Amino acid sequence: MAHPFRLVDLVQERIEGFLAERASILLPVSGDLDALIGFSRRFLSGGKRFRAQFCYRGWEAVIDGEAASMPRGSREAIVSAAAALELFHAAALVHDDLIDNSDTRRGAPSAHRLFESEHTASDWAGDAGAFGRSAAILLGDLLLGWSDELLDEGLTALGDPERARAARAAFTTMRTEVTAGQYLDILEEQAWPVRNEAERRDVALRVVVYKSAKYSVEAPLAIGAAIGGATPEQLAALRGYGLPLGIAYQLRDDLLGVFGDPAVTGKPAGDDLREGKRTLLIAAARERLPESARRLLDELLGDPGLDTEQIAMLQRTIADSGAVDELEQMIAERVDEARGALDGAPVAASAAASLDALATSVSRRSR
User: Which residues are CB-neighbours of 71 under 8 A, at least 6 positions away?
Assistant: First the structure.
């Protein structure tokens, strides 16, 4: 790894090489399996690579020296771990879009819609939608398994069993927590009518933490730091930075899910409103709205048939309640908390500067 600014290129090269290796296993079985490789390449060819960047910065923060001077095994391990996180993320997105019945991802068809369209174009027998859903489940499972394989390849190259165990433990915990968070998310979409009003905000925040915050920022940092041989003090500082920033990241995502520009986000306007996401934004709005407006919000939220005018009306209702301003304040406070965790922390100055810049990137993004 010659230079940090090439991280994204190196991760992409690792992903492409890995997929080529797996294609050599799949294609001798049947040429029909080329769709799995093709769709995998498509879903892994872009994105912001935030998780890969945080993984690398966690490693950079604790290594003793410049990245280019590290042993080859350590450099191979961090690139493979960063790439494994991207495969894990792709698997999560494939399953998440299926759960949410989302038609698009990054401005293009979601995986189940791609498989559905292939069924229709090929004039196959049976139900195209059912085929698309089944195939997407399998693609997500395949990517999930491959993320494990790619991580293990990197940890084997590391040549340090203790560091490898620590990185594997962080990855395994992340995988369990994000699945738990995803379940809590879909549970809340159904269970909210019987929730005590006082519980709603706490439940929404718990979903933020476990579905997104930990696996988007905190866990990648911890995995990278483990590969670099972090001390307990270094790991505590990085986690102290990662969790609040991960919360800020997801709160921004919640705002974009309601107010984001479709031309920028690649998702329909107000998509979270149609999907019925019971986010912290919605919890904050409900607390502030009069009973009649709260009742209307509850009635419309989660209706997949919401039209443009209804979306605009709900957007105005939420904004006028003051909930947007509250979330913006929460984001700013969490970013400040994250930056404060690195003040005087025993981490490399170059990595601290990069993490400071990433705090701005993830909390102010428009997609």
Answer: 159
- Residue 293: how many other CB atoms lie within 10 Å: 16
Please name each of the domains of the chain with its CATH number. Answer: 4-363 (1.10.600.10)
8: left (phi over 0), alpha (psi -120 to 50) or beta: alpha
CB 62 within 8 A of CB 230: yes
Which pLDDT score, from 0 to 100, does residue 2 have?
38
219 CB-side CA count, 13 A: 27
Give per-residue pLDDT as tens, 86-131.
999 999 999 999 998 888 787 789 999 999 999 999 999 999 999 9
**Max Cα–Cα distance, the chain, nearest Å:** 64
Round the CA-based radius of gyration of the chain to a whole number and report it.
21
Q: Which of 251, 258, 288 is closest to 275 using CA atoms?
A: 258
Quickly tell me which residue has 């489940």 as its tokens: 137
Instruction: Tell me the pairing of strands 104-105 and 108-109.
Output: antiparallel
The amino acid present at 364, given as its one-letter code, is: R
Residues of the chain with pLDDT > 70, as a percent, come to 99
